[in-house]
Amino acid sequence: MKHMNSEVKEERTSNKNRIDLFLVPIVLIAAFLNLFKIWTDEYANAYYTAAVTSMLQSFHNFFYASFDPGGYVTIDKPPVVFWIQTISAKIFGFHGWSVILPQALAGIGSVLLLYVLVKRTFGVWAGRFAALAMALTPIVPAVSRTNNIDSMLVFTLLVATWMLFRAVRTAKFGWVLAAFAMIGVAFNMKMLQAYMVLPAFYVFYVVATKITWKKKIAFLTTATALMLAVSVSWAVVVDSTSADKRPYMGSSQTNSVLELAFGYNGINRLTGNTSVTGSGHKQPAQTEQQTASSETKQTSNSSADSSQSSNQRKSSSSQKMQAPGGGNQNGMFNTGNPGPFRLFQKGLSDQISWLLPFVIFSIVGLFAGVKFKGPYTTKQKESLFWLAWLLPVAVFFSIAGFFHQYYLIMLAPPIAAFAGAGAVALWSMYKQHNGWKSWLLPGGILTTAALQVYIMSPYVSSIGVAPIAGVGALGVILALVLAVRKQRKNSLTNYLGAAAMVVLLAMPAYWAMTPIIYGGNSMLPSAGPDSSSGMGGPPSTATNSKQSGFNGMQPPGSSSGNSSSNGGQMPGGSSNNGQMQPPSGSSNSGQMQMPGGSSNNSQMPNSFSNKSSSSKRKSGGMNAEVNQKLLNYLTKNNTGEKYLFATTDSTSAAPYIIKTGKPVMAMGGFSGSDPILTVSKLKAMIKKGEVKYFYLSGMGKGGQSDVITWIKDNSKEIPSSKWQSTSSSAQQGPSGNGTLYEITLK
Fold it and tell me: Which of 313, 311, 316 is nearest to 298 (CA)?
């Protein structure tokens, strides 16, 4: 802290061509939080891991990001991140950690990029604090430890930011084009979410560049045109390809990438209307929460019955909601209720908002005395950039109808940048006794400590009273002592300032470690003492960690009693060190290559370990287990059909795709609501011998109810004794027990 008021020393340090020794431990912390124990996550997000399984098998599947090896339907996102994951799996072998690795490295890269971006203008200490704040923002490592897209998206946008800053410093138009083109690449990662930073890019370039207005408009227009061209390049290729020569575009209603981008993954995220029936009429959404919770494993004892009743009440309540994401009065996915203070509500505040009061005080200090017409210093211009990133994104999450907690990683860069730049600026004002501005530092410390106490209070049963009381007491004491000692200049004051920053970062650091301590959820990642639940709320919001976190999903046909006794293990098979085997292709003969190189006509390869959950974690967030008896039955009775079996949605299909590398048809896409099939199309597929077995669990009927009705009316039911793990119970679903059907048409 004592160096922070010396701009000269900071500039000299920053200009030396040597490694910043203070940065090394920060990077090591980020590496630990992002990488440690990712090898224990066998499935990662099974929906996306299944796609990587499929993409490894052919360029056709790779280009379109096909969910299944048969090329029936794509995942609901563009392909760029999954191209990277597939390349990683190709290089390192197909493991859970190899599909997570790119995102973990991106999380570390974001910490380094923020250091570089902040240090150059605000000084080396500002860069250090910003990098540390980024590394310790809980949602950052929580997301980076999964194969979800958002960590890679943020890294790409920070690369674009570095290019934009360079464009302004060098006055070279090429860097402007590169920056906006990179946003186009980010669009092909998560569509319109990448455009959230555009206000910051436009405002900063207009304010920071010293060229004529005519050139500014011309350059920005050209750069925007390039960005749009890059953004829609893949979409245009896909949408212009005949529908019968490519997979159906998952989660769209018209088999169109552009409709997916601007509808389901675009405007509907704001409005919360995320489901449309196949006939085009809006209906209450078949949410991801409903899809997953309906597949929740139920145990046979009395406590499990109580949990089941609780889940049923939650399910009943969720049916009243129009859309997932918490943009509703019920706060689904624990994202609170819309309003100006939404980011301070439980479930969101503990993911991203730990330093928000300090950031607000920092913004006041950084913009103090700024006149609207300028002139602006470089610090003020870059502060304006981070503010133009922070405010629109914060407003979106305050009013949006459909988002998950891990989307909040979009707020991490500007919050961390202001935390770093603000720490230096407020310290300088404090040391210089700069009038009312000298009170901003103790004021920021006091209010931030108060918010952190509020954030932790719902978790008192999990973390105890001591850390809550400790942060509150130390925050108050340090703020008051700093206020009293304003007129004194000695080393003690410097240590007090440093101690205050440690106190403010202590609990975010603990929260950032919770996915390692308690386990994480790869489908709905969040941080906190209940991070394994994937709900990110206080313990009271989750009846049972397995149930709330969707980790306890039953494989089709397995019983609750069996799965309970197995402790979440996958039925059947011996240990293979938790290693996923590369898909061997879409052979329909039922003969798969065994891990040791030998083949077996009746057994699928043991792609995953059968070790206890203490050593390997199946947190696919979906139905991340396989019923070996069902798999054996389907394999034995396959007579050359392309698809091992068909099911309503991706929940049941994903783990079988991952384990076998064979096509499994998710008839209605991710949630079962995509209008992909018609009865006539299905008849044609059956007559061609492409599919004959159907597992129906009552899920995903939206948009395909006619197909499901036809299947039931024209098939024979397979006795449960032939394929269920036990004969005592069956797969649970919202409309009854799962059933296996066989259809053969001549």
Answer: 311
End-to-end distance of the chain based on CA atoms, in angstroms? Answer: 81
Neighbours of 692 (CB within 10 A): 22
- Can you read off the two tokens belonging to residue 351? 């993911």
Instruction: Please identify which residue in the block is written with the tokens 């796609």.
Output: 51
What token pair was written down for 479? 């703020």
CA–CA gap between residue 511 and residue 529 (Å, rounded): 7
> Comparing C-alpha atoms, which of 196, 98, 118, 87 is closest to residue 150?
196
Rounded distance, CA 272 to CA 94, Å? 36
The angle at the Cα of 394, spanning 423 to 405, to the nearest 5 degrees, equals 100
pLDDT band of residue 228 (cuts 50, 70, 90) is very high
Of the candidates 399, 403, 271, the residue with the CA atom closest to the CA atom of residue 333: 403
By DSSP bridging, strand 693-696 and strand 646-647 are parallel
* Amino acid letter, 128: R
Nearest to residue 322, comparing CAs of 292, 290, 345?
290
The three-state secondary structure class of 607 is coil
Sign for the pseudo-dihedral over CA of 165, 168, 171, 177: positive
Residue 329 contacts by C-beta under 8 Å, 6 or more apart in sequence? 337
Residue 132: how many other CB atoms lie within 10 Å: 26
Q: Are strands 716-717 and 739-742 parallel, antiparallel or unpaired?
A: antiparallel
Question: How far apart (Å, rounded) are the C-alpha atoms in residues 631 and 608?
Answer: 14
CB 357 within 8 A of CB 341: no
DSSP string covering 719-733: PGGGTSS-SS-----
For the chain, what percentages of helix, strand and coil (3-state, to nearest 5) are there?
55, 5, 40
CB-based burial, 347-378: b 16+ in 10 Å, e otherwise: bbbbbbbbbbbbbbbbbbbbeeeeeeeeebee
Res. 510: pLDDT tops 70: yes
Average pLDDT, the chain: 80
Rounded CA gap, 686 and 673, in Å?
A: 21
DSSP 338-376: SSTTGGGSTTTHHHH-TTHHHHHHHHHHHTTT--TT---
Q: What is the Cα–Cα distance from 282 to 322, expressed in whole angstroms?
A: 10
The fraction of the chain above a pLDDT of 90, given in percent, is: 64
* Best CA proximity match to 181, nearest among 211, 200, 201: 201
Read off the pLDDT of residues 86-143 as tens digits, 9 standing for 90 and up.
999 999 999 999 999 999 999 999 999 999 999 999 999 999 999 999 999 999 999 9
pTM of full prediction above 0.70: yes
* Residue 549 C-alpha from the chain's centroid: 14
Query: Residue length, the chain?
Result: 746
pLDDT tens-digit map of 414-428: 999 999 999 999 999
H or E element at residue 600 = strand 599-600
Is the preceding peptide bond at 375 cis, omega within 30 degrees of 0? yes
Q: Which of 302, 252, 58 is nearest to 668 (CA)?
A: 252
Kindly state the tokens that stand for 340: 């100006």
In angstroms, rounded to a whole number, what is the distance separating the alpha carbons of residues 600 and 622? 28
**Would you state the structure tokens that stand for residue 364, as one six-digit string?**
């006041």
CA torsion sign for 542, 548, 552, 553 is positive
Q: Side chain identity at 459, as an amino acid letter?
A: Y
Q: In whole angstroms, how far apart are CA 199 and each of 113, 203, 326, 452?
A: 20, 6, 25, 30
